[in-house]
């Protein structure tokens, strides 16, 4: 028995229930969290392609907000679906979402049946069927695991596999985070067997414009480090306007500080004037920092979390808490 078969035993019954509901509904909508990342978009588009490849007679749609760079570069633009489509019975499949407050489209709540598939802590259980596995590096890994459990009858196309691979690479930090397991690599191998070209995948994911170097240069000139190796940089609204970038892109350079001697954790702090807060993306080289994020009404994974601060006065408290982890 291989590692895929072992994991399938855990969810065999629920996988069967999901497949039964897919067959039952003629209309299926795929959702994920708002402000999407690689995992949210990759899982969503991977699921869309899987359903359209194997169940072409069904109406399968995907909705949500576009990402400022990823949609159009690595993923297609989101579909604009009218309210009329959602007025008929439909199945909602919700991916990479721990609580409904962050759903990408409120119309998911109109679904006749709801399926949740996620790898975050199950802080808000929801869904008529819920499959949550925190041991997975990405929701895309869990989705792929399910698809390959049906492989004797249904195919995983190259297009489907490429999206799921992006999801896993994005949320595992290119397989560098401790959330990466033997199972993660096994799923990656299966996806690569689809025939996709890994060089093309990475070219799409990490392509940058020349002007992005200006932002990187600013970060390298203005970062700071706490006494015990917590590196951080701050981008206020004035700086964002200077470089003509939205707040959501403030975290683009956060991993500049990964794998540097003496740096134990690193974070970006970006002003979001529209939301009236400061967005913080937090990373760690090994120590679990998720409980610190939770203390500041955020959350996430052991080595990659996010949170929001009401003002910069709170930043000093956050830095003290992080610094104390490495004394």
- Mean pLDDT across all residues, rounded? 94
Q: What is the succession of H and E elements?
A: HEHEEEEHHHHHEEHEEHEEH
Number of strands: 11
- Tally of DSSP helical segments: 10
**End-to-end gap:** 45 Å
Q: How large, in whole angstroms, is the Cα Rg?
A: 20 Å
Sum up the overall morphology in one term. Answer: globular
Structural class: alpha/beta
Largest sheet: 6 strands, mixed
Low-confidence stretches: none
The amount of helix comes to 25-40%
Q: In order across it, which strands form the biggest sheet?
A: 6-7-8-9-11-10
The proportion of residues in beta strands is 15-25%
Q: What's the layout of helices and strands?
A:
Blueprint (H helix, E strand, L loop, with lengths): L2 H22 L2 E5 L6 H17 L4 E4 L28 E5 L17 E6 L10 E4 L6 H11 L8 H14 L10 H11 L5 H9 L5 H11 L1 E2 L4 E6 L1 H7 L21 E8 L4 E8 L5 H6 L3 E2 L3 E6 L3 H12 L3
Parallel strand pairs: 1-2, 1-3, 3-4, 4-5, 7-8
Antiparallel strand pairs: 6-7, 8-9, 9-11, 10-11
Helix pairs in contact: 1-3, 2-3, 2-4, 3-4, 3-5, 4-5
Descriptive report:
- With 327 residues, the protein is α/β, with parallel strands linked by helices.
- The longest helix is centred in the first third of the chain and has 22 residues, at 3-24.
- The chain contains 10 helices and 11 strands.
- The mean pLDDT is 94.
- A hairpin with a 4-residue loop joins strand 6 (224-225) and strand 7.
- The strands form 2 sheets. It has a 6-stranded mixed beta sheet.
- The protein starts with a helix and ends with a helix.
């Amino acid at each position: 028995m291989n590692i895929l078969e072992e994991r399938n035993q855990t969810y065999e019954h629920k996988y069967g229930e999901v497949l039964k509901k897919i067959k039952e509904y003629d209309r299926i909508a795929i959702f994920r969290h708002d402000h999407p990342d690689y995992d949210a978009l990759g899982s969503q588009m991977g699921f869309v392609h899987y359903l359209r490849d194997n169940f072409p007679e069904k109406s399968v749609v995907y909705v949500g907000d576009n990402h400022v760079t990823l949609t159009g570069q690595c993923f297609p633009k989101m579909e604009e679906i009218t309210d009329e489509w959602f007025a008929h019975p439909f199945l909602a499949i919700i991916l990479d979402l721990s609580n409904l407050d962050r759903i990408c489209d409120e119309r998911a709540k109109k679904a006749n049946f709801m399926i949740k598939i996620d790898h975050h802590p199950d802080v808000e259980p929801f869904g008529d069927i819920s499959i949550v596995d925190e041991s997975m590096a990405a929701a895309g890994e869990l989705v792929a695991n399910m698809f390959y459990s049906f492989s004797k009858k249904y195919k995983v196309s190259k297009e489907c596999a490429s999206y799921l691979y992006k999801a896993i690479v994005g949320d595992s930090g290119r397989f560098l985070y401790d959330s990466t397991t033997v199972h993660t690599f096994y799923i990656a191998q299966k996806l690569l067997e689809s025939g996709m070209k890994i060089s093309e995948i990475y070219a799409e994911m990490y392509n940058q414009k020349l002007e992005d170097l200006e932002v990187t240069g600013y970060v390298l000139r203005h970062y700071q480090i706490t006494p015990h190796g917590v590196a951080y940089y701050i981008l206020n609204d004035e700086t964002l306007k200077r470089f003509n970038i939205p707040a959501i892109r403030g975290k683009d350079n956060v991993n500049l500080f990964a794998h540097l001697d003496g740096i134990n954790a690193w974070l970006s702090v970006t002003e979001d004037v529209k939301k009236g807060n400061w967005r913080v993306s937090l990373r760690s080289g090994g120590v679990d920092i998720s409980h610190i994020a939770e203390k500041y009404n955020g959350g996430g994974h052991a080595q990659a979390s996010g949170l929001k601060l009401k003002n910069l006065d709170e930043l000093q408290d956050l830095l003290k808490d992080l610094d104390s982890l490495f004394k």
